[in-house]
Amino acid sequence: MNRKEILERERNLAPYAGIAAILVPVVFIASTAIATSISVSDGVATDEIRTFSDDSTAVLAASLLRAIALGLIALPLYLLFRAAQARSERVIGAMVGFAVIAPLFLAAQSILIFVGQDQLSTDFDAQAAAGGDVYSLLDDLAADNSLLVAAGIAAQLAGLALIVAMIYIPLQAMRVGLLTRFFATLGMALGVAAILLPALTPLPLAIWFGWLGFLILDRVPKGRPPAWDAGEAIPWPRPGDQQAEPQQAAGDDVVESDATEVFEEDEKPKDHSARRDRAKKRKRKQRR
Question: Domain check: are 268 and 143 in the same one?
Fold first, then answer.
């Protein structure tokens, strides 16, 4: 693709990707607010299941909003990947799949958890009425719930895909100058932390995507990096590059001056010896 085609494609995708990224923290916060409004009398798993049965509508709303927020990150990740790929041949095209797989698996996990818990709640209420050890009953029902098992598998796949996407895409975008070093490094760190510390980092990561949306739409205070409007890679200067060039230039000058001085010193003795020979010949002629 030439520069004009690259800019045209990004100009068409930017409004959708930018708005989707800005909506990520908004929808995520709404989902969290609904989830925290659901009161659980005790932290025991059996009480949580009964609460789920009583507040299933609120749980469904929170799950749907969370799935939407997770699915929305696919658009800005896709645009960022394609923009980096258009500016560098080092970007592997097949890696674009992680920009889509991670959000979709995360969204699917949220829906599968709700459907699985709904089925688990129904089965538990039906069998717990007969009495007996309700805790063992709940554990057995959860182990036999195929939807919850599928949600666990989706969570593992989504976690691996998210780590790859949040490391590879911001890294390549930084190398071509689409993201600053700080912002790209922050995104990579939050992507890894979202899997290692799932209770602490989802909101900061959502806010990161929100800022990325403003960056895509060129609504940040200092403007977007110039690589966006140039349609080509404008890598950030590496630390020390500007200092290394003057040192190299100074070294070249010294070598050239030394070579010149040696040449002049070599020539001077030849000139003096020639003059002496001519002077001796003149004296001999005068004597004759």
Answer: no
Q: pTM of the entire structure?
A: 0.78
- Owning domain of residue 274: 240-288
Question: Of 70, 71, 98, nearest to 172 (Cα)?
Answer: 98
Same domain membership, residue 206 and residue 96: yes
Q: What's the per-residue H, E or C state across 132-185?
A: CCHHHHHHHHHHCCHHHHHHHHHHHHHHHHHHHHHHHHHHHHHHCCCCCHHHHH
- Do 126 and 262 belong together in one domain? no
Residues 137 and 211 in one domain: yes
Asked whether residue 17 is domain-assigned, the answer is: yes
Mean pLDDT of 3-22: 95
The mean pLDDT of 48-58, rounded to a whole number, is 77
Q: Check residue 51 and give its pLDDT.
A: 72
Place of tokens 């459907």: 115
Q: Which two tokens stand for residue 48?
A: 């949580």
Residues 197-255 pLDDT 10s = 877 788 999 999 999 999 999 999 989 999 999 999 999 887 666 533 333 333 344 34
Q: Let me know: does 70 contact 108? Beta carbons within 8 Å.
A: no
Distance between CA 147 and CA 141 in Å, rounded?
A: 11
Question: What is the phi-psi region of residue 30: left when phi exceeds 0, alpha when psi lies from -120 to 50, beta otherwise?
Answer: alpha
In whole numbers, what is the pLDDT of the chain averaged over residues?
Answer: 82
Domain boundary among 230, 257, 274: 230
Residue 198 lies in a domain: yes
Domain total in the chain: 2
